[in-house]
């Protein structure tokens, strides 16, 4: 008797980010140093470029490849940036921010407490992807979010 194949492989979630970069091997090394990523597989194309690789950060799976413009796959650098942000919760956002910057990320916003209960920071990795790093520090009732945001904006503040 055959065991049915699971439609979502073991350990994966419904949505898995797939990153495209200009140097996937270097990106994997950066993610290991900056975020403690663990590479789980790598498929090489002729010439050594990465056709597909996978890694995890904590319990989150990611997929990555080198850019292949002929296949409609471009990196953020070629697109002039990216509108997509990756949000990652950490036990200590201050230490995580320092580690990412030390590994080569560009700081965008240093760690700061936010009205929704997170302490948050933002970096751009050397490959053009934006990471929002956060540690949850307070449970705030979601019904308070709009009033807190309105007060911040009225005071001339900006939302992260």
UniProtKB/TrEMBL annotation:
<dbReference type="Pfam" id="PF00903">
    <property type="entry name" value="Glyoxalase"/>
</dbReference>
<dbReference type="InterPro" id="IPR029068">
    <property type="entry name" value="Glyas_Bleomycin-R_OHBP_Dase"/>
</dbReference>
<protein>
    <submittedName>
        <fullName>Glyoxalase</fullName>
    </submittedName>
</protein>
<dbReference type="InterPro" id="IPR037523">
    <property type="entry name" value="VOC_core"/>
</dbReference>
<dbReference type="InterPro" id="IPR004360">
    <property type="entry name" value="Glyas_Fos-R_dOase_dom"/>
</dbReference>
């Amino acid at each position: 008797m055959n065991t049915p194949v699971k439609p979502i492989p073991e350990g994966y979630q419904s949505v898995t980010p797939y990153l495209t970069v200009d140097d996937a091997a270097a990106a994997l090394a950066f993610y290991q140093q900056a975020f403690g990523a663990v590479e789980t597989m790598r498929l090489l194309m002729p010439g050594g470029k990465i056709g597909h690789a996978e890694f995890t950060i904590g319990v989150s799976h990611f997929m990555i490849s080198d850019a292949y413009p002929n296949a409609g796959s471009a990196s953020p650098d070629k697109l002039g940036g990216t509108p997509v942000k990756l949000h990652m919760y950490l036990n200590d956002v201050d230490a995580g921010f320092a580690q990412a910057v030390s590994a080569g990320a560009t700081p965008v916003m240093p760690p700061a407490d936010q009205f929704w209960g997170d302490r948050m920071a933002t970096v751009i990795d050397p490959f053009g992807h934006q990471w929002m790093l956060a540690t949850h520090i307070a449970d705030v009732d979601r019904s308070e979010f709009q009033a807190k945001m309105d007060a911040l904006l009225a005071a001339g503040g900006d939302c992260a």
